[in-house]
Amino acid sequence: MSQECPTIVGVALNGRVVPNPCTVVRNNPHPGRGTVLVLGTPRGGTSVVAGICHLLGVPMGADIDSSNVEDRTFQRVLASPQVVRDSTVYFAEAAKRAPIVGVKNPTIIDHLAKFYAVIPDPILVVVSRDVYATAQREESNGSDFMQGLRAAVRRKYAILDFVAAVSAPLVVVSYERLITQPEAAIETLSRFILGAVDADLVGRAAALVRPHVDMPNDVDFVFERMLLNVGALIDQRTVA
């Protein structure tokens, strides 16, 4: 099934085309069902993309840290000496919560090959950011710039090698273009992951995409999704 995602989103005043922030590499034949894996590097934009997925209706965990949209339970799974056993249980339990779920951790690529086979219907969302900007963000948090740069480059190539070797649905998101063209990126992600686009929801998510924010103090995707869920529940009770 084609997601019909445009490769360009417009034409600039000088006549040059404006590329879509997202490139669908392999279409998703089962929109609305499966396990969304948000892949990227630390300080590489994965938190905002995971937040967008969560707000669009892809639960990103049962115990989400709103500062980075990571499931605390999954963090413990990645740190477990029995990561294959624990990830098998984790993904089986996650699949029971909703037809489509997601998970994000910027170091997941270091372990993914060990348990990829147990993930139900994986949907790959790769977030790509300028590695120098990533290293600078790491440096601002106390890390050595060159070490951060090497780690970002290593993980970026590890992700590219991994996704090229598997056949799961794949979309690549440019973090830099996402920041400047959030509506186009979110529309593409929604169509690719869910098979549909809710214009109001896209607008709500786009309003939360801003550079240099402090999550969750400036932007809280988890809280925004909770507000939507509460509003939907109130509407249902009003109709009933």
Please summarize what this structure is:
This protein is α/β, with parallel strands linked by helices. The chain has helices at residues 46-56, 72-79, 83-97, 112-115, 131-140, 145-165, 175-180, 182-194, 199-206, 221-239, and strands at residues 8-11, 17-19, 22-26, 34-39, 64-65, 70-71, 100-104, 122-128, 170-174.
Record the SSE blueprint.
Layout: E1 8-11, E2 17-19, E3 22-26, E4 34-39, H1 46-56, E5 64-65, E6 70-71, H2 72-79, H3 83-97, E7 100-104, H4 112-115, E8 122-128, H5 131-140, H6 145-165, E9 170-174, H7 175-180, H8 182-194, H9 199-206, H10 221-239
Structural account:
The chain has helices at residues 46-56, 72-79, 83-97, 112-115, 131-140, 145-165, 175-180, 182-194, 199-206, 221-239, and strands spanning 8-11, 17-19, 22-26, 34-39, 64-65, 70-71, 100-104, 122-128, 170-174. It has 240 residues and is α/β, with parallel strands linked by helices. It has one domain (8-239): Rossmann fold, CATH 3.40.50. A five-stranded mixed beta sheet has the order 3-9-8-4-7, with helices on both faces. A two-stranded antiparallel sheet has the order 1-2. A hairpin with a 5-residue loop joins strand 1 and strand 2. Helix 1 (46-56) runs parallel beside helix 10 (221-239) and helix 2 (72-79) packs antiparallel against helix 3 (83-97). The longest helix is centred in the middle third of the chain and has 21 residues, at 145-165. 38% of the residues are buried. The model has no long low-confidence stretch (mean pLDDT 91).
